[in-house]
Amino acid sequence: MAARRVVIVGGGTAGWMTAAALARLLPGRCAIHLIESEAIGIVGVGEATLPQIRAFNERLGIDEADFMARTRATFKLGIEFNDWGAIGDSYIHPFGTFGPGTGEIDFHQFWLRLSQQGIAVPPLERFSMACTIARMNRFALPSRDQRQLTSSFGYAYQFDATLFGPYLRGVAEAMGARRTEGRIVAVHRDGESGDIASVQLESGERIEGDLFVDCSGFVSLLLGKALEEPFQDWSKWLPADRAVAMPCRTEGAVTPYTSAIAMSAGWRWRIPLQHRTGNGYVYSSAFLSDEDAAAALTDAVEGEPIAAPRMLRFLAGRRERSWVHNCVGVGLASGFLEPLESTSIYLIQAAITALIELFPERDISPIDRNEFNRLVDLEYDRIRDFLILHYHATTRTDSDFWNYVRTMPIPDSLAEKMELFRRRGRVVKYREGVFLDASWIAVYLGQGIIPVGHDLRADAPSPESLVAGMRKLISDVGALAASMEDHAAYLRRYCPMAEAA
Ligand SMILES: Cc1cc2nc3c(=O)[nH]c(=O)nc-3n(C[C@H](O)[C@H](O)[C@H](O)COP(=O)(O)OP(=O)(O)OC[C@H]3O[C@@H](n4cnc5c(N)ncnc54)[C@H](O)[C@@H]3O)c2cc1C
Question: Taking the CB of the first residue and of the last residue of the chain, which one, N or C, has fewer CB atoms within 10 A?
Answer without folding.
Answer: N
